[in-house]
Automatic annotation (TrEMBL):
<protein>
    <submittedName>
        <fullName>Uncharacterized protein</fullName>
    </submittedName>
</protein>
<dbReference type="GO" id="GO:0000150">
    <property type="term" value="F:DNA strand exchange activity"/>
</dbReference>
<dbReference type="GO" id="GO:0003677">
    <property type="term" value="F:DNA binding"/>
</dbReference>
<dbReference type="InterPro" id="IPR000551">
    <property type="entry name" value="MerR-type_HTH_dom"/>
</dbReference>
<dbReference type="Pfam" id="PF00239">
    <property type="entry name" value="Resolvase"/>
</dbReference>
<dbReference type="InterPro" id="IPR051491">
    <property type="entry name" value="Recombinase/Transposase-rel"/>
</dbReference>
<dbReference type="InterPro" id="IPR006119">
    <property type="entry name" value="Resolv_N"/>
</dbReference>
<dbReference type="InterPro" id="IPR048046">
    <property type="entry name" value="Transpos_IS607"/>
</dbReference>
<feature type="domain" description="Resolvase/invertase-type recombinase catalytic">
    <location>
        <begin position="65"/>
        <end position="158"/>
    </location>
</feature>
<dbReference type="InterPro" id="IPR036162">
    <property type="entry name" value="Resolvase-like_N_sf"/>
</dbReference>
<dbReference type="Pfam" id="PF00376">
    <property type="entry name" value="MerR"/>
</dbReference>
<feature type="domain" description="HTH merR-type">
    <location>
        <begin position="8"/>
        <end position="50"/>
    </location>
</feature>
<dbReference type="InterPro" id="IPR009061">
    <property type="entry name" value="DNA-bd_dom_put_sf"/>
</dbReference>
<dbReference type="GO" id="GO:0006355">
    <property type="term" value="P:regulation of DNA-templated transcription"/>
</dbReference>
């Protein structure tokens, strides 16, 4: 089942996403390498599916992972990290969910520079993640959980 994304990108945003210049996108469009979509007024735009295609990402749900994400604020709380993981594994097993990966992070909830959390967000944007399971929303992010939930939903993440 292919999921449709409503995300359309302006050339500037798409170029930034691909880490190329707008001029490169224009050249690729002319040469047929990555053909832009056109609005009725002939403006270029790009779609999420074009992003996946460029990155070589298959949007097949079977390839997507279910992950458990755990976080504590300091290294002194590693026992709590183990308890979170154990609780979530028991919970997901009781629901019949298969977990592909357990992600353990140590860092403050207000810190957006958590190595494993940033990799998880990137994996979501590359359509590699189906479901993220957390013990409580503040374990994922201290403030703005609803925004992140809505953002990740655009990439098909539950």
């Amino acid at each position: 089942m292919q999921r449709k994304h409503t995300t359309d990108y302006k050339p500037k945003d798409f170029a930034e996403l691909l880490n190329v210049s707008v001029k490169t996108l224009q050249r690729w469009d002319r040469e047929g390498i990555l053909v832009a979509k056109r609005t009725p007024t002939n403006r270029r735009y790009y779609t999420y599916n074009q992003y996946l295609e460029y990155k070589g990402i298959n949007e097949n749900k079977q390839d997507k992972q279910n992950v458990v994400y755990t976080r504590v604020s300091t290294n002194n709380q590693t026992d709590d990290l183990k308890n979170q993981a154990e609780f979530l594994l028991n919970y997901t097993a009781s629901k019949g969910m298969i977990i592909d990966e357990i992600i353990k992070d140590v860092g403050r909830g207000l810190n957006y520079n958590r190595k494993h959390w940033n990799k998880l967000i990137n994996d979501c944007m590359e359509n590699k993640i189906d479901t993220i399971v957390v013990s409580h929303k503040d374990r994922f992010i201290r403030f703005g959980f609803e925004w992140f939930e809505r953002f990740l939903r655009k990439f098909g993440v539950r």
